[in-house]
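Before the break, one more example. Copy the sequence into your notebook; we will annotate it together after we see the structure.
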Amino acid sequence: MAEGLMSSIHLGSTIVDALVSTGVRDVVLAPGSRSAALALAVDRAARSGALRLHVRVDERVASFTALGLAKAAERPVAVITTSGTAVANLAPAAMEARASGVPLVFVTADRPAHFVGTGASQTADQLGALGPAGLGVVRLSSESGDAAAWAAGVHRAVVLAAGHRTRRPGPVQLNAEFAAPMVSPLPEPARWPLAVTPSRPGPSHRLEEPLRTVVLAGDAPPEVGAEARRVAEAARAPLFAEPSSNARGGDCAIAGYRRLLATLGGDIERVVVFGHPTLSRPVTALMSRADVELVVVTSTADWPDPGHRAVVVADVVELPAQDEAWLARWRNADSAAVGGGFSQRHVARSVLASLDGGHDLVLGSSSIIRAADSIAATDDAPRVFANRGVAGIDGTIATATGIALADGRPSTVLIGDLTAQHDLGALVRPTLEPWPSLRVVVADDDGGSIFHTLEQGAPDYADSFERVFGTPQGLDLVAVATAMGWRAVRVADQEALDGALASDADFIVAAVPRPAP
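Here is what the structure looks like once it is written out:
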């Protein structure tokens, strides 16, 4: 591009070329007018094979799809949106990406700055729209700078999102102001290379004192989960692994650890934490105890420490060998019994049993992931993902779609009925877009069963419970999914569920009872 040449189409082309040059291989586009130059440039890049383009009409669905892609691929993914309220719809996925360290670049098209505050159509002050969730904001304008300056801004955004230098990956806003005219003939593609050396982990930290130790693995990518399991098994320490830790399995894993903390937890002297534990109050209480040495293993600049008790934060740790009797106490007390009736635990057990190491499983937040947490895992288990950064129920189906698109592995998402309702837009399968091998399983108890396990589930609040906590919706999810083209079935017992899991049904609603408040 000629020096000093400025136009919207040149800015859009440079942004996309620079994304490709920095290694971005997936872009999710939510179409609009102000982002037209970006749309044309990213379509050309996709046609040439430089990247994969995914188009979603809903910005919220688009951003969670990108979250799933980035989670599974473990590299930055870009999202392109138009201006105005479209940008606000990115906030939920940005919050999750920040809390779980997922690299996303939100390319938000904007009107020129001089239109802000004038009442111009679809114009708002959208700089910093991600709020505290954003790691930073990079500003570009078709009325200022040149191609080299624009490419350098893209470089900064991608490097910041990836956490290459900060070791703190997350969401970044790349806000691009496009002046009219928005479209014109595309310039020739350009390369904007940049080599960035990542910040390296430090040396291992050796823990010498032979304290009674447990390894606690929270939400984590597969390589972190594998390291947590390796450390536990090398030291013969009990392993408390949440479902999305990717550490469950082996003879050190204790399936019923949450229940056993009430009886055996008092004897724990050291906790070694991997990933981001979020599932239960007993675990949070364990991490907050003053009489426990808390060691956090992380390769990033952040670490979980809700009780402010961490005494060691290290990239790698080595544990002293544990007394085999310590592990034996936990193993002997452990039980993975599922109980009678047909419950969320039965659904979770059947889904886990139907998947092997060649599959991915995405778990919704709320009750269902806790049901899965009580089921003993096998060594040939699927990769497990969950949005546990802020543990919301937003965008779970869209996230699972992105994960399945990332590498083409068959995927199952296991969620509750309210989580499904929060992401009905993600059930739309665009006719011009590739669709992955994705199955949705819904444990439908017609409401918010998790609240039964919290204070508001006490008898004192029974008169108010159903309306303001249980919130039954009475929605026929099978009819909704069928209308959207899914092969949907409803089951109400174990035999029917196992049959549906073995069939070609790709949307399974398992009706399970919800206890009365």
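The longest strand covers residues 104-110. The chain has a mean pLDDT of 93. Try to locate both features in your own notes.
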